[in-house]
Amino acid sequence: MNSKNISYEIIAREIPSVIRNCSKCKRNTEFYCSEKFRVNANQKMVDVWLIYNCVCCESTWNYPIYSRVHVNKINSELHKKFMGNDKSTIWHYAFQISRLRNLCSDVNTEICYELRKEKELQSMMQNTTISIRSQYEFGLRLDKLLAEILGVSRTKIATFVQDGLLVLPPHVKPKSKVVDHLHIAIIGNWYADKLK
């Protein structure tokens, strides 16, 4: 039987919020991304921030993107994107989860996303490669995603992997985080095992 390839794309529908101390509320609160940059130029030196607002009082936190950088060190096209609040550029920086975690108490990565699929489930009975694309990494677990795709529990996903019905890339585990360009092979009749 010929092997089939089915592609899925994970589309993030919102930006992760951050948890950090609010000087006005005097406690840790949630801050949402305003989706606006702040650019400050002092002679030839430039500062760029991405602005976040407290959900309780609207106080701002400036997420530093560039600090005291010579204007010639910033690509002119990128500078225009900062000035024009380019959405794709905003989302690029807003999904730098590791960096945000270093600056904040936590990052809320439980965001809404859409899973776009190429074909229906019935076409994935066996001998299929699932290809996963994700422009942004936000901590989504692979077992959760595969459970959603195959319509089974996370426990079943772990069993499928253990039994060799699902073959993951080297060094990737069911509890690993989803990254771009993942390929998972379905070997044999997983659907029959699902019904057990």
Question: What can you tell me about this protein's structure?
Answer:
This is DUF1062 domain-containing protein. Pfam families: DUF1062. By secondary structure, this protein is an alpha+beta fold. It has two domains: 4-12 and 115-194, RNA-binding S4 domain (Structural Genomics Hypothetical 15.5 Kd Protein In mrcA-pckA Intergenic Region, Chain A, Roll), CATH 3.10.290; 17-108, no CATH class. 23% of the residues lie in helices and 38% in strands. A five-stranded mixed β-sheet has the order 7-1-8-10-9. Strands 5-4-3-2-6 form a five-stranded antiparallel β-sheet. A hairpin with a 2-residue loop joins strand 3 (27-42) and strand 4. The protein is elongated.
Quick recap of the structure?
This protein has 196 residues and is α+β, with helices and mostly antiparallel strands. The protein has helices spanning 76-83, 87-94, 97-103, 142-150, 154-162, 190-194; strands at residues 4-12, 17-22, 27-42, 45-54, 60-70, 106-108, 113-117, 128-134, 166-167, 182-186.
Strand order of the largest sheet: 7-1-8-10-9
Helix content: 10-25%
Structural class by sheet pairing and helices: alpha+beta
The ordered string of helix (H) and strand (E) elements is: EEEEEHHHEEEHHEEH
* Radius of gyration, taken over Cα atoms and rounded to an integer in Å: 21 Å
Number of domains: 2
Uncertain ranges: none
Number of strands: 10
Q: How many distinct helices?
A: 6
Protein name: DUF1062 domain-containing protein
Organism: Ornithinibacillus xuwenensis
Pfam family, one: DUF1062
